[in-house]
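During the no-cost extension, the postdoctoral fellow (Dr. R.K.) reprocessed legacy sequence entries with the updated structure-token encoder. One reprocessed record is reproduced below for audit purposes.
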Amino acid sequence: MQHQTIHCRRSRGFTLIEVLSVLGIASILSSIAYPSFQGSLQKARRTDALVALTQVQISQERWFVNHRGYATLAQLRLPATTSAGHYALEVVAADDSRYEVMARASGAQARDSECRHLKLVVDGAMTTRASGTDDSVANPPAANRRCWGL
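Re-encoded structure tokens follow.
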């Protein structure tokens, strides 16, 4: 008679050290990826303002043809917020030769510090696009190009 040896294998789970190591690695990776994701999200939301400012520009030119001057948002029958609600819009100046429109970030988009405010100025044939952290819209040219996607 032969003796048969039976080996019992114990099923083994993860140790606490292994679980903590995986959690540590995951948290490091997410801390690296999250800011990049937020930056991409803010850039995508910025297009909400760019589209709205373009709509204001088109409406202003249409108004000018009929009235020989520029108008407020109310006169243009345009909303004071962008379609997705990430920016508040305001015509800060309008007369018979020029207008200025400001888009101010609101809600979660207000964390887009470098491009929080976008300003479009049309003075005759001259169009100026500015951006900044506040109403002074004093970003340097490189930052301004990033904010406007130029």
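The chain has a mean pLDDT of 85. Helices lie at 16-67, 73-76, 141-148. The remaining legacy entries will be reprocessed before the final report is submitted.
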